[in-house]
Amino acid sequence: MKNNNRKILSGNEAVARGAWEAGCHFAAAYPGTPSTEILENIIKYPEIYAEWSVNEKVALEACAGASFVGARTITAMKHVGLNVAADPMFTIGYTGVTGGFVIVTCDDPGMWSSQNEQDNRHYARHAKIPMLEPSDSNEAKIFTKMAFELSERFDSVFLLRLTTRISHSSGIVELGTRQEISLKGYTKDIKKRLVLPAHARVLHQRVEERLKKLADYAEEFPYNRIEWQDKNLGIISSGITYMHAKDVFPEASFLKLSFTYPLPEKLIRKFARGVKRVLVIEEGDPILKQEIKSLGINVVGKEKIPLCGELDPTVIKKSFKKPVYRPDIAIKEIPERPPVLCPGCPERGVFYVINKLKLIATGDIGCYTLGALPPLNAMDTCICMGASVTNAHGMDKAGGKDINKRLVAVIGDSTFFHSGVTGLLNAVYNKGNLNLIILDNLTTAMTGHQPHPGTGKLARGEEGKRVLPEDVARGCGVEFVRVVDPTNLKETEQAIKEALNYNGVTVLVFRSLCALLKKPKPYLVVDVENCNGCKLCLRLGCPAISLKQIPTKDKPVAYIEPTLCSGCDLCVQLCQHNAISSAKKD
Amino acid sequence: MKSKKISKNTDSLKVTNIIICGVGGQGILLASDILCTAAFLEGFDVKKSEIHGMAQRGGSVITHIRFGAKVYSPLVEVGKADFILSFEKLEALRYSYFLKRDGILIVNDLELAPMSVLTGDREYPKNIIDILKQNGDVYLVPAQNIALELGNVRAVNVVLLGSLARFLTFKKQVWLDAIKENVKPQYVDINIRAFEAGNRE
Hints:
The complex is a heterodimer.
Chain A: E1 2-3, E2 6-10, H1 11-21, E3 26-29, H2 37-42, E4 49-52, H3 56-68, E5 73-78, H4 79-84, H5 86-95, E6 101-107, H6 121-127, E7 131-132, H7 137-154, E8 158-163, H8 164-167, E9 169-174, H9 190-193, H10 197-220, E10 225-227, E11 230-238, H11 239-248, E12 252-257, E13 259-261, H12 265-274, E14 277-281, H13 287-293, H14 313-319, H15 348-356, E15 360-362, H16 387-399, H17 401-404, E16 407-412, H18 413-429, E17 435-440, H19 469-475, E18 480-484, H20 489-501, E19 506-511, E20 524-526, E21 545-548, E22 557-560, H21 570-574, E23 580-582
Chain B: E1 16-23, H1 28-41, E2 45-49, E3 60-68, E4 81-86, H2 89-94, E5 99-108, H3 115-118, H4 128-133, E6 136-141, H5 143-150, H6 156-165, H7 172-182, H8 188-200
Parallel strand pairs in B: 1-4, 4-5, 5-6
Antiparallel strand pairs in B: 1-3, 2-3
Helix pairs in contact in B: 1-6, 1-7, 5-6, 5-8, 6-8
């Protein structure tokens, strides 16, 4: 929505806009909630080269390469993505940059769509890389732009930290124009970019000197600011938490921190001297509190505020015993509504078979992780991207025949390319009995359908070079490789049984397009005369199928909701009583 | 919907808090975007917060929208929502703890059973509207039927937005502009008709 030069943007859109305005040349990322829309929006700016890389490490390293030749470059990832990319990030922290280099980490307090709640403010300290934390969309844009300039000025990569409530909240942003920056060009400099121990020792010295300069700069950073009001109470906060705290304590004085590593010591001391009592309100770990306490300043913080979960104005109010009105709802048990596999999801049949055969299944990260939920109950583990493959290998080697004859690893296509390949290679090399199931729905579905090598499409939809997972598997030395249609229940079951009976590594690629990208077939209907209410179809966990009591039958019969049914016909294949058929006869 | 004197909930000094909730896939994010744009065009500061990813696979979805002279947090406090606009009855119940005393609940007359109800493990609560009435004014809108009569069940979100608009003091033209900003040109007409139908309810 445009209003002269103001527009409503999400935090992620604002970061993309900031990168564009800053003259950014190169962007690479792997999708991950809540970071995905940053690259998705950069893709809309043709001036910036943009790619979906196969994982976060690859993306960060590619960005480093772009910086080597003097390009302004940005990568964005979810918090756990930075674990994958941590290896190059720590050393890039030493080498510094040529073109400005910004790494965006999008943390997920509350774990809305994540497997842990790690606080990536620790990474700034650990890797000695400066960090900026915006509090809304407008700051997200401004800080992104500033981060490129500061990166070049201080010869340091910069971390920009967002959280879900910054990334996925929207607000009004002041728009600017693009500043065209010419490529600096490449100059060989092995003392800077080739980290032999002899070079790295010198670089480490430089890192420590740089941190001192950055700390001095943090004192004058315009968005580290004191807002004097009632001096009986002073609050130090940053990021989204600053906004929540402003609502809860409208009268208090505030020190709003935006350049959060290294911290502005003098400014903090000045603020603390000016108020009677200091509260540190921060989400996640007590990082600000500990650092401020170490300056000898007496503060109250995490002893009152929860360590776990997301903060919001209500949680902060409760933490400080402020009254909260909560209407009394005369019903205590409200049925939960967790997300489910979509109607027509091609993975459903595979999970049905895994459950039917009572297999052990190591799982992975994607919407198919929902196969773990009842009634499918078809997954035993889920740790991180790629771990299905390697967890299964370990279980196979240590658990022996009892385990490996009923053990499968289940991974999605995009996840396989991200970090499944190395685990597969490892299992082949170490003569394992891994049975790998690749659920190939020809997209990165969970994060909103981004392309990957198996789709052969590039970020802007252009043709790329298609790389198929079965070819990768063969290339890794797997001899048992089959491509199977998961919409056929019999073939699915047969293929899984054969793989389990094979000695050695097997790979089954179950290929069928994501239901959200397929044109639905005519919906299915239940013939109530034939249905005896056996509930077998309910075991598919399809949101379109339920039981309904009808007057002419003494027990409830199956009912298919036409607005939800995609006509995938798994239930037709399962029904023993010929009670389900297409509404539209051929 | 019975006629009621429209309260001045969009007093320019006060922040108006709105929760929009329902089931992933019902078009909640689009409705939130249109509302947000309308508030912006009316000259308010506005913030919106939503959740993507896992929550969109048929799960429970909630969006927070706040507008006024100056908005800090994008999140509505518990017990402070002026309005809850729910696309489904069970979801209205789930998030009704956000409603302020005598706040207004606008609820789509639709029941969608979650998986635990489909499999028979749990029961869908029977007297939701009665429970909701204990804490605020409840308006039940047959938005599903209205959208079907208009020929597009997907327009249910904008029908409901039309119902909410009765309680806000935004100019009609602002709503129409906000719809145009947020939907593809070929869907502008149906959405304007949906808005008007909801606005009459």
